[in-house]
Write a structure and sequence with these properties.
The protein is an alpha/beta fold. It is built from 16 helices and 11 strands. The protein is globular. It binds pyridoxal-5'-phosphate (PLP). Pyridoxal-5'-phosphate binds next to helix 6.
Amino acid sequence: MHKIDIELVEMTMDVMKYTIDRISSTNPKIGKPKKSEELKALVGETITREGIGGEVAFKKWRKYLMKSNVPVDHPRNLAFVPAAPTRAAIMFDLVTSASSIHGAYWMEGAGGIFCENEAMKWIVSLTGLPKGAFGVFTSGGTAANLSAIVTAREHWRENDAFKGEKGLIIASIGAHSSIKAMAKVADVDILLVDTEDIMYGSELQKTIDGLTEHQRMRLFAVVGTGGTTNAGIIDDLEGIASICEKENLWFHVDAAYGGGALAADSVRHLFNGIEKADSITIDPHKWMFSPYDCGAVIYKNLELAKQAHSQQGSYLDIFKDEGAHGFNPTDYQIQLTRRVRGLPLWFSLATHGTDRYKEAIERGIELAQIAGRMIEKNPHVELVREPSLSCVLYRRIGWSPEDYTHWTYENHRKGFALVTPTKWKNGNAFETVSRFCFINPDTTENDIEMILDSMV
Ligand SMILES: Cc1ncc(COP(=O)(O)O)c(C=O)c1O
């Protein structure tokens, strides 16, 4: 398995050919999910005592298994939060794997971590956080949100008065599901301000004022969203920051999806107040064109993250030694062993420069505006709300929830597009609507037009 032989050489050629074909394709096929039993029937037993051989396994991958995936970078994949890793980043993802770097400690991964930190400096500079703020790459937004919540909770519990208390955080119902999920993991209660639209400081204040004395004592953090996943809405970060400061609460901003737009001059002002956050989540694998998986958590005070996350163990003692000193990513988030997952982003940023990133992100915002104008002109559809960041919510006039579902499956079945429905709160009721989320700068106006036409 660890030998270098002709089979390895052939495998390398096959993998490189496949990679080149895949990354030079501008219109990869939208695959369809098959049931596990169907896939098994197609490929048979692949894990055997003797192995089936790389050539056979790779053939099965190409012929059957790859075709059962939906490429996130397809220009008409506008569902959920799609992605569009740059080709440079994808190539360097291969280099990252081939380099076999342990990315937890500087002692082993100094070169890789140095590159990650260069990319991180750019991300941190977009936030406007004060000097000393810094971050670390995580497996995604969920891990970044958890790392931040745990840091906030541990900091709060430094006060003996709160040691035996279960913490409480406030977010809005527009906050991403991972905030609720991670509150569960961290065993803290969560209170949701009843708005899917902008959470204003005034609403937050009202919610805090309405807490019981014990709830107020348990409250330690507020989560604002810098671009809701459903609609691209940015909370009143300035207002929330002021209240957090006044009430002595940790202010976390979840900008996992929207954080890329900090680089876009056209919308940067909407994030004002983010520079006062105690922690921020930004996912480079969403709108910073990194391959999966690559999230980031940034802290105003890095030391607090270290106090919460630094792992102790006799076999880790060497890392406290002067000779091993440097930036240790493991100290600032929940994971020990880690890939240097910021490396592909570093290479792509170094290759293209930050201006190209700015342009590509602005294009996503522009596509949302273009889609909005097309919807306004089309008699069959109407906007549910103005496009925000790169999200567009719109309704097909006269459609029931089942119509949206049927349309989604039909487009998927034809291999034409992946556009999925969502729900939007209309008064007290939830309405099923259609949603676009633009990330890929190669999506064209024609793609949008074709999708809208398919609703007629
Ligand atoms: C605002 C927001 N926060 C958190 C997450 C979770 O991120 P991940 O899927 O990378 O764990 C998402 C994912 O879409 C998101 O949009």
